[in-house]
Amino acid sequence: MPSFEDFKPFFVTGLSLGGVYALSGTGIVVLYRATGVLNLAFGAVGAMGALISWALINHTSANQYVAYAVCILFGGIVTLAYGIIFGPPLAGRDPLVKAVGTLGLALILLGFMSWFWPPKSRSMFLPTSNSGYQIGIVHVTWTQIIGLVAAVVVTIGTGAFLRFTRLGTAMRALADDREIAATLGVPVRRVEAVAWLGSGLLAGTAGLLLSDLVALDAVTLTFLVISSLAAALIARLQSLVVTLFAGIVIGLVDALITPILSISTYRDMTPFVLATIGLLWISRRRVVSVGRAGT
Fold this sequence. Notes:
Helix content is 77%, strand content 3%. It has helices spanning 4-35, 42-59, 64-90, 95-116, 142-164, 166-176, 178-183, 188-213, 218-223, 225-234, 240-257, 261-264, 270-294; strands at 132-135, 138-141.
């Protein structure tokens, strides 16, 4: 069994990755609440944006900060385009059909990435990874700090936006009942477009951060969305605060398993196990409360 000192670097890694998972989970939850779409292409969008940014930096004379902006904007544009083209036809379909549609987008993007960027070792280090703080034996980079702080800021900012702005109120109205909201004069298409755009921008941001924190690999970044989905599911695709804490817990548990050689090979199961435990616990509490109310 590793000592406590061995776990310290992984504790920092877990907090930063958990922050990015929470950031991604926020984008997934907001989009689902506004449109009813569970976006399974979230990771693929961020991954392709990061690879485009890497190509601009390494194969053109583009400024690195412009390349980073392109990554984030790519996520917003692609996701918005999908929402505008396929959102209205799928609006009345079952949630499963909507989710499968985004899965198709993920597979298309993954195919493009495999074609243009064949699998090989790539790395992209953001300027924020070159400096940071030394806490004991652990070096904490600014990228890791940004990953955690961004999750907190986005969660608070998104919650305030949904609560105190007219557009946010319209999004919450769509989440309650799309048809009634449209009847009351809510511009459904415009509100949904904003939700798609915001979710895409968060996807690009998450892809940029994860390309530094994890690896610049299309498959790896695409399927890291599983951890974000687990955080969103634990929050029942409703609570942003629960999504934040669930994402951080998943990141911590996933990272802290790494030094334990006997179970580290099973660390990919972490999101599924935690999501299952969380959903079972929530369901248990609801059953108990309903039973008491009936008596």
